[in-house]
């Protein structure tokens, strides 16, 4: 039997085990998928090997550790500066990023996105920023601290809260965990509200609740999506990577999508 897991902190909210176990069962694969609370990201690989895992997903705040500590990494993961999927192959741990393609599939209903504002400067923000840029989208990144923006400012227009210039965008994305545990916003409302009023679409990577960010966007008549489809699509891609891309992704998607109906 093969064993897979998701690492994160927090991780108790993750529905990845339900998604993957449903697909594994439906596809008749002898495997199980669980979750692991990991407080120290520097121990990610040692924990992976200690648990004798065949593959894993990595969520906040350990995606940058996943890339840094893996033996090898895909081009998308290296360009994104983070990884959310680890696969054991020939005793090496390979790092991939399925957040980026999963996100791009999720925003297809929005149509062509010419400009986007990414809130946050973590691993997820890196993946989404590069995915949008590769799709010819002009990307702006805003973050509370200037230090985290150092990884972005060579390729993207970057601002801290204090020097941000308010304007509208086709798409605003919350890539942070703000709103996951409480009603906090990813940026001060004095910044967010005027930007939202001038924008068209809002996307929150948080998938299991209606966040304060999305509530504010909906109150201002923006078309909104939470992170459910992004989670679904990145999970489909990750599970296929666990099996060396030998599975039928349409069957995986059909199986996993049923979980969201429960």
UniProtKB/TrEMBL annotation:
Annotated keywords: Amino-acid biosynthesis, Aromatic amino acid biosynthesis, NADP, Oxidoreductase
BP term (GO), one: aromatic amino acid family biosynthetic process
Residue span(s) of domain Shikimate dehydrogenase substrate binding N-terminal: 6-86
A single cellular component GO annotation: cytosol
Catalytic reaction equation(s): shikimate + NADP(+) = 3-dehydroshikimate + NADPH + H(+)
Pfam families hit by this protein: Shikimate_DH, Shikimate_dh_N
Binding-site residues, shikimate: 14-16, 59, 84, 99, 207, 234
EC number(s) reported in the record: 1.1.1.25
Record carries keyword Amino-acid biosynthesis: yes
Pathway the protein acts in: Metabolic intermediate biosynthesis; chorismate biosynthesis; chorismate from D-erythrose 4-phosphate and phosphoenolpyruvate: step 4/7
Any one GO molecular function term: NADP binding
Domain Quinate/shikimate 5-dehydrogenase/glutamyl-tRNA reductase, residue spans: 113-178
The organism's place on the tree of life at top rank: Bacteria
Residues the record lists as binding NADP(+): 205, 227
Record-annotated active site: 63
Reported function: Involved in the biosynthesis of the chorismate, which leads to the biosynthesis of aromatic amino acids. Catalyzes the reversible NADPH linked reduction of 3-dehydroshikimate (DHSA) to yield shikimate (SA).
Assembly and oligomerization: Homodimer.
Xref: PANTHER family: BIFUNCTIONAL 3-DEHYDROQUINATE DEHYDRATASE_SHIKIMATE DEHYDROGENASE, CHLOROPLASTIC, SHIKIMATE DEHYDROGENASE
Family: Belongs to the shikimate dehydrogenase family.
Name of the protein described by the UniProt record: Shikimate dehydrogenase (NADP(+))
The species this protein was found in: Campylobacter curvus (strain 525.92)
């Amino acid at each position: 039997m093969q064993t897979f897991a998701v690492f994160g902190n927090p991780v108790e909210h993750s529905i990845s085990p339900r998604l993957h176990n449903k697909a594994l069962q439906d596809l008749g694969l002898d495997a199980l998928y669980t979750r692991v609370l990991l407080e120290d990201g520097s121990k990610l690989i040692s924990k992976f090997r200690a648990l004798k895992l065949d593959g894993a997903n990595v969520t906040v705040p350990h995606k940058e550790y996943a890339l840094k500590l893996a033996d090898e990494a895909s081009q998308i993961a290296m360009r994104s500066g983070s990884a959310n999927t680890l696969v054991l192959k020939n005793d090496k741990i390979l790092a991939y990023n399925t957040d980026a393609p999963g996100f791009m599939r999720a925003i297809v209903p929005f149509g062509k996105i010419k400009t986007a504002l990414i809130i946050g400067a973590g691993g997820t923000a890196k993946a989404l920023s590069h995915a949008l840029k590769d799709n010819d989208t002009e990307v702006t990144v805003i973050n509370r601290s200037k230090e985290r923006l150092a990884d972005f400012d060579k390729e993207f227009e970057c601002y801290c809260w204090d020097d941000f210039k308010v304007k509208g965008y086709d798409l605003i994305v919350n890539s942070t965990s703000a709103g996951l545990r409480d009603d906090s916003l990813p940026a001060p409302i004095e910044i967010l509200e005027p930007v939202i009023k001038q924008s068209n679409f809002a996307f929150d990577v948080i998938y299991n609740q209606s966040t304060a960010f999305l509530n504010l966007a909906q109150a201002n008549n923006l078309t909104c999506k939470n992170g459910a489809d992004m989670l679904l699509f990145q999970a489909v891609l990750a599970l296929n990577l666990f099996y060396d891309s030998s599975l039928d992704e349409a069957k995986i998607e059909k199986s996993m999508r049923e979980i969201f109906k429960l």
